[in-house]
Amino acid sequence: MNATRERLLDAAERLYAERGLDAVSLREIVQAAGARNATAVQYHFGDRAGIVRAILARHAPEIEARRHALLDAYEADGVPGGRALAGALVRPMAACLGDASGRAFLQVWADAVNRPRPLVTFAGLDDPPEPAAGGEPSRPRPDSLCRWRNLVEPVLEEDAARLHRRFTAILYTATELARRARSGPRTDDRLFTSYLIDVVAAILGAPVSDETRRLADERDAARR
């Protein structure tokens, strides 16, 4: 493990959480990390998007494992349900509220996704291969968020799906977890987490009104 790289990640994670992605320069990250080379960030990460991806990648293994386990349980249960799927979205991220690095990560994640053009891609890219039995070629394991999206789709109304209801749920989850992270640490996040799951389940299950359906039809017709 490269010590300079880790110090840069520590500094970037902390500064981005404190001030936001757009208010911190690469030079400030280098100075906060105590790196001697002024271009240390560029050397290790390339650019701002690269160091943000590295911050997210730090926390990805635990989040992926937790979400896959919840989705495995959901599929094994065989009973479609919005709250169980809402929990699979929320709980793996909410577990990050328990430590300072996790809380910083949640704020970075929300800042990166909550913009007209997300700074980084979160799902479906660069999944590590999953070993196959019997020496067969490895098959890529699906990103847990992509898997979640696929499992949610049959639960949604058709019009809710075309209006990007899943992204709405993801964005709301990111925003609320970041807000909680900024106000932490707390001794107990269970009530917050359970209520957030309730709200996300309501977002996924909310009916599409006749007015919204009509306006969506008009929008789609204008695009043809």
Written overview of the protein:
The termini are far apart. A hairpin with an 8-residue loop joins strand 1 and strand 2. This protein has two domains: 1-46, Homeodomain-like (Arc Repressor Mutant, subunit A, Orthogonal Bundle), CATH 1.10.10.60; 59-125 and 138-223. It is globular, with a radius of gyration of 20 Å. The protein has helices at residues 3-19, 26-33, 40-45, 48-77, 82-94, 100-113, 144-152, 158-162, 165-183, 190-205, 210-223, and strands spanning 129-130, 139-140. The chain is built from eleven helices and two strands. The longest helix is centred in the N-terminal third of the chain and has 30 residues, at 48-77. It is 67% helix and 2% strand. It has 224 residues and is mainly α.
Give me a quick take on this structure:
The protein has eleven helices and two strands, in the order ααααααββααααα. The protein is mainly alpha-helical. It has two domains: 1-46, Arc Repressor Mutant, subunit A (Orthogonal Bundle), CATH 1.10.10.60; 59-125 and 138-223.
